[in-house]
Amino acid sequence: MTEKEQNKTSKFLSLVLRHKPETIGLKLDSNGWANTEELLAKMNENGQSLSFEQLRIVVENNAKKRFIFTDDESKIRANQGHSISVDLALEEKQPPDILYHGTATKNLDSIKAKGLIKGQRHHVHLSADTETALKVGQRHGKPVLLTIKSAEVHKQGIKFYQSANGVWLTDFVDVEFIGFPE
């Protein structure tokens, strides 16, 4: 399976496991899990030929670790980024003092006015390292790195969670806790 094929499959998995499972007639449980055999059968029925071994390769090699299997690999789900209603059953966690958010420069005026809001997603996504945050920002235009005073946000009663792939999640970051570049 080439890298290009892996990326194409990863994008399709993001669609059906994060946003529109109905695209292939897939049912997710309340925690966002799909039966692995059903996922493969539905994908193959809908022109997305994929074996279990190829699926395992995509899950293991995905740079962002977007997907996870249960221990027995009978179920699969996206780690975060859902626009559909799922309960990832994440436990609240104390964040580090500083986290980072990568975005595009075109979004700065809105962020300066409203803070970081989750929009159509379940959470605002934050990174523990600048490199990851900048990669996220590049997807949307000219990247800019924001510094988040996450420990101070947490002291205000805002909950933080960390997904299985290390992404920090929260509902909102007020503008007073965001460090903007000069």
Keywords summarizing the entry:
182 residues; alpha+beta; 20% strand; 2 domains; 11 strands; Arc Repressor Mutant, subunit A; ADP-ribosylation fold; 3-stranded antiparallel sheet; 6 helices; 32% helix
Describe what this molecule looks like in 3D.
32% of the residues lie in helices and 20% in strands. The protein is α+β, with helices and mostly antiparallel strands and 182 residues long. The relative contact order is 0.15. A hairpin with a 5-residue loop joins strand 2 and strand 3. The strands form 4 sheets. The protein has a 3-stranded antiparallel sheet. Strands 4-7-11 form a 3-stranded antiparallel sheet. The chain starts with a helix and ends with a strand.
Task: Offer a quick outline of the entry.
Helices cover 32% and strands 20% of the residues. It has 182 residues and is an alpha+beta fold. The mean pLDDT is 93.
Topology overview:
Layout: H1 3-19, E1 34-35, H2 36-45, H3 52-61, E2 67-69, E3 75-78, E4 99-104, H4 108-114, E5 116-117, E6 124-126, H5 130-138, E7 143-148, H6 150-155, E8 160-162, E9 168-170, E10 172-173, E11 178-179
Contiguous uncertain segments of 5+ residues: none
What's the CATH architecture of the largest domain? Answer: Alpha-Beta Barrel
Question: Numbering strands along the chain, what is their spatial order in the largest sheet?
Answer: 1-3-2
Number of helices: 6
> How would you state the average pLDDT, rounded?
93
Tell me the quaternary state: single chain
Radius of gyration: 17 Å
Number of domains: 2
- Assign a percent range to the helix content: 25-40%
